[in-house]
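Hi L.,

As promised, Type IX secretion system membrane protein PorP/SprF:
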Amino acid sequence: MKFTTIRLKYIFIAAVIIATLQGKSYAGGFPVRPRSLLLSTSVNYFFANKGWDSLRRLSPFASGGQFKSVSYSLYAEYGISKRFTAVASLPYVMNVYKDSTGYNNQTNGFTDLGAGYPVLLI
């Protein structure tokens, strides 16, 4: 019990420090200066060979199945003026499921494409 109480104390102190410092963050992509381009890329990888069944038990996929997913994303912001910014998001995903029976299912494509026009109100 004492270990848990000490652990919670440190988690609480860390949360208070993070909340206090959060207001002093000077970084951010909005608003972007006029005629400036901000690009951000990301790559994500996911692997699974087990899944949850209807009885909430974690069990391996049938026939030694394996799921892999890799996603690449490009995010861009362009400053049109001091108040207006154009934004776009272009994610691309590759999903593969294979098992020992020779079954192989692969899907690729763009997902959740986005475009917007944020306005600075203040």
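The radius of gyration is 22 Å.

Thanks again for sending the construct details.

K.
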